[in-house]
Design brief:
The chain is an alpha+beta fold and 153 residues long. Helix content is 36%, strand content 18%. The strands form 3 sheets. It has a 3-stranded antiparallel beta sheet with strand order 6-3-7. Strands 1-2 form a two-stranded antiparallel ribbon. Strands 4-5 form a two-stranded antiparallel ribbon. β4 and β5 form a beta hairpin. The radius of gyration is 16 Å and the shape is globular. The chain starts with 5 loop residues before the first helix and ends in a 9-residue tail after the last strand.
């Protein structure tokens, strides 16, 4: 036993470098994994908040880890790598700090994932924690991108 709290271990895990399948350091997190800039360009992009296709905004963010499930015997984590992509609607909610509206938009798919009310509540809580961590780890103002994710302007 290392004597470290879950929070200390989680903070340390956020500093661990993920690798792209090619072996380079992953700097882009996608819905299908972590990749270096070169290999992330071929992956269709979706909004990291609502999964809508072709996000037009990037929100700079540090890599962070969120606890997804905690039981007496194990803890599961979700790692977010780098910037977050956002569609026009989600980006507008972020710019206006309409966090409840953004959370509602993020949660619209939950009933299609599970009909179990306890599981739905658990997923909503995870999304709430994920959104809070995103807010705490943003590093700069958002910027517009083209369909390939390249910065505009």
């Amino acid at each position: 036993m290392s004597g470290k709290s879950d929070e200390q271990r989680t903070a340390e895990e956020a500093t661990v470098r993920d690798l792209c399948p090619c072996g380079k350091v992953a700097t882009v997190g996608t819905h299908v994994g972590a990749f270096c800039e070169e290999h992330a360009t071929g992956i269709p992009s979706t909004c990291d908040f609502c999964t809508m296709a072709a996000p037009m905004w990037r929100h700079p963010c540090r890599t962070f880890v969120v606890i997804t499930t905690k039981t007496s015997t194990r803890t599961k984590h979700y790692r977010s790598i780098g910037d977050w992509a956002a569609c026009e609607t989600c980006s507008e909610f972020i710019r206006r700090r309409q966090w409840d509206s953004l959370l509602d938009r993020m949660s619209t798919d939950i009933p299609s994932i599970t009909s179990d009310p306890d599981r739905q509540a658990s997923l909503r809580e995870f999304q709430c924690n994920l959104l809070r961590a995103f807010r705490e780890n943003r590093t700069a103002e958002p910027y517009r991108v083209d369909l390939k994710g390249n910065r505009l302007g």
